[in-house]
Design a protein that fits this description.
The structure is a homodimer. The first copy, chain A, is of the alpha+beta class. The first copy, chain A, is built from 6 helices and 11 strands. In chain A, strand 4 and strand 5 (65-71) form a beta hairpin. Chain A binds a DNA duplex through helix 5.
DNA sequence: ACTGAAGATTGACACGCATCAACGCCTCCG
DNA sequence: CGGAGGCGTTGATGCGTGTCAATCTTCAGT
């Protein structure tokens, strides 16, 4: 039994796919804001980010939004139980995303289990940030996380808007903006562009996360 | 952990056995507050709650605590990546917990993957509560969740302290207590005991969660 | 049953962040 | 080139929840 058993049988997307036994996973282009799947959709495949970034979120009835996770190049998302998506997924910026066909080899199954567990650990760690840290600590944790996931370089990109960052951290865009300004004023970060950050004092940032 | 729980032979399983919550492993007793595993411990097995409740949490350097999840009877926990526990797990009240040997059979791994994915969805939904709902909504969501996971009866138990509830919802015990009092004053719930609740107006509670 | 400690409740007050509002900057497109 | 609209920044103000403190309740141990 493989991970594929958890998902509904994969319907061929077109005649070509059905005819090809081992299709190459070519990324599909998504422009910023484009929907990848919606809450309630059938969950019959996984996705791997080739470039760009994906936001996975949920909405309350009155429109409040919580982004549960961002997925960056190389990362896999789309796991669900019971064959239905419980969340929305959209490209946070222009992105390339490859659909992964559910394969039945043990190796692929193990790999997907590992990806799912990594998402679980990440979600639980995110809970600590959102549930118990203040605005400054949340932004610091977010910046450190983004840097680490992009090779841990001093300079890195924020492939999403301030609004996305706020909805990821449980803050408003105004608070996000104020904290960025404060960190910049203190020389902890430099903003090379609206979406490009340089960690001037990584030690300070890391200390803020505790 | 008793030797019996560690080395109890796995009964051969068929499809129906896997679906049934009753495990072949014998549960070990844990008193309230007893540690099941700690951050940094080797993660070499899973656990299934027989009775009682488990809290899985993480700490900040200054002692702030975030409970990522509660596990109730029948539920499986202990998933990790890279063979190390990233969290602490303790009995939230007197509990019986069975260790599950990591087996490589396809059937067991399928079952575990499903449990892991269920934990993932639950954690992501919990993020919405903690990140975007106010104190009243959080408590309402918590009560509805607890009721549903205990058979969706009007009356149910809270197998954890107010402090645990606060650390699960990202609130202080004072706020938790105040919201309970408010719901009781409005006739939405009745407190049959300090840890026993009756949903007098389930519709109101569900509406609060949106 | 008595006693002490831990947990829970309630009140007063403070503060961090949300809200509301104004403005600047950039991009798109006529 | 100019206007419009989206996004980001900054300021003023209010509210919800944290903090501190006092009291009450529950429960375990003697």
């Amino acid at each position: 039994m493989s991970a594929a058993a958890l998902f509904a049988p994969l319907a061929p997307r077109n005649r070509e796919d059905a005819a090809r036994p081992a299709p190459a996973e070519l990324p599909t282009m998504y422009s910023a804001g484009a929907e990848i799947y919606a809450q309630g959709d059938r969950a019959d495949r996984l996705y791997r980010v080739a470039f760009g970034a994906v936001r996975v979120y949920r909405l309350l009835a009155d429109g409040r939004r919580q982004i549960c996770a961002f997925y960056l190049p190389g990362e896999v998302f789309g796991f669900e139980v019971d064959g239905r998506h419980h969340f929305f997924a959209e490209a946070a910026c222009a992105s390339g995303i490859a659909a992964i066909r559910q394969v039945s080899s043990d190796e692929a199954s193990r790999e997907h289990l590992e990806s799912a567990l990594r998402s679980l650990v990440r979600a639980q760690e995110h809970l600590l940030v959102v549930g118990r840290q203040n605005a400054l600590e949340r932004i610091a944790a977010f910046l450190v996380d983004m840097a680490e996931r992009q090779g841990d370089l001093a300079q890195f990109d924020l492939p999403m808007s301030r609004s996305d960052i706020g909805d990821y951290l449980g803050l408003t865009i105004e608070t996000v903006s104020r904290v960025f300004s404060k960190l910049r004023a203190q020389g902890v970060i430099r903003l090379l562009g609206i979406r490009s950050v340089e960690m001037a004092k990584p030690g300070v940032l890391r200390a803020l996360c505790e």
